[in-house]
Design goal:
- The protein is of the alpha+beta class and 178 residues long.
- The chain has two domains: 1-30; 34-177, Immunoglobulin-like (Sandwich), CATH 2.60.40.
- The chain is built from one helix and nine strands; from the N terminus they run αβββββββββ.
- Strands 1, 2, 3, 5, 7 and 9 form a six-stranded mixed beta sheet that branches. A three-stranded antiparallel beta sheet has the order 4-8-6, with no helix packed on it.
- The two termini are 40 Å apart.
């Protein structure tokens, strides 16, 4: 009985060691994705290491915040597919865009949504980190909210959609550490 307990303890120590080494390896080999404050159009970048594929889709975002005093003023949100612009928004109001994320793979993916630039303090992302299952689709709201004390002006930034995909089945459990 004592040998069985010792063998089980040894197996647990080996498993913990393997997981620790894997986490250390992932930390050393994850790409450094530099934040951008401005971008002209949507971009796509792809990085790989021996365990994961990283897809980075970057969307420019912008808003013109105006004072709502002109009766003939046209207000509208941009719905261009190559950006997440909010168009012209009056002080004290809000706008909303939706990011649709599809996972057409046969393995789960982790999605991170990050915001950068001077517009970021006005942005609220519905869910900024989540795992998308096989053949799953998710829509994420991106809301721009201004207060009555918001300064009038043009604000810009970049919204990064980072998708992490394990290269091999069985490595899905490592999505929790990336």
């Amino acid at each position: 009985m004592k040998n069985i307990i010792q063998n089980m303890i040894l197996i647990v120590i080996i498993i913990i060691s393997i997981i620790s080494i894997a986490i250390y390896f992932i930390a050393l080999n994850s790409p450094l994705i530099e934040p951008l404050d401005q971008l002209a159009n949507k971009t796509y970048e792809k990085y790989e290491n021996s365990i994961f594929t990283y897809e980075v889709i970057r969307f420019p975002t912008f808003v013109d915040i105006i004072d709502f005093t002109d009766d003939d003023l046209t207000i509208g949100i941009s719905n261009d597919p190559y950006n997440l612009g909010f168009g012209i928004i009056p002080v004290g109001s809000m706008g909303k865009r939706v990011i649709r994320v599809d996972n057409n793979e046969t393995i789960p993916s982790k999605v991170k949504i990050m915001k950068n630039g001077n517009i970021s303090s006005f942005l609220e992302i519905g869910e900024d980190v989540f795992v998308l299952g096989m053949n799953e689709t998710k829509s994420v709201d991106v809301q721009l909210k201004t207060g009555e004390d918001t300064e009038i002006g043009t604000y810009t930034g970049v919204i990064d959609l980072i998708i992490v995909k394990p290269k091999y089945k069985g490595f899905e459990f490592l999505l929790g550490v990336v």
